[in-house]
């Protein structure tokens, strides 16, 4: 998802020589949390409601505004924009297109949107997020491992012990993923009992990592096993020629084949 889909295209401006009180009145009138500061047709800063609250009413906007505007292109992914805002500890970003400011995006908007992309049962991101991560790594020509994991005979587990039991298993496995997570790992719940992992971990770590990921789950004296398929981008000559969709097909088939060998 791109920033341009979420930004507010309408924004208001104020001159730098206007008083802070005047800027506050504008914000109240238009029900906005920020104003672009414009002098002689040029944007020279941004002033937010927080800036206004912390400034003396007799000061002018130039004294209260932020001079160095941090902006983001409207084609930027929402996760990148949110990361930029968290890094700079700012509440609003100016959104540009072809070098011109075309809108405003708030951190609250981005947080709300990204939280909607979380799976409510497991609190993991959905596949949109992993597609974004993999796409970014591919564009940066950075190789990675792609792992597909699903439960063995999950349908039978649900039938024999009920869906609440199955949901508990999914939550336990999601907790495992989060406990194992390091800065090189990205997870999502792909659907049902299927999970996908992108990791840039060193190859020497992979065997141990996979063992931990696929360790059987024990719940109420019942043991549930898991199967995994792995694509090793470091060994694939045509890695950067494949799409993420192609990779998903290959890695899910690898998991299915491993499952057949385990079950037979």
TrEMBL record:
Q: Which InterPro entries match?
A: CBS_dom, CBS_dom_sf, Diverse_CBS-Domain, GGDEF_dom, Nucleotide_cyclase, Rev_trsase/Diguanyl_cyclase
Q: Which residues form the GGDEF domain?
A: 142-264
Annotated ranges, domain CBS: 7-64, 65-120
User: What does the UniProt keyword field contain?
Assistant: CBS domain
Q: This protein is called what?
A: GGDEF domain-containing protein
Species this chain originates from: Ferviditalea candida
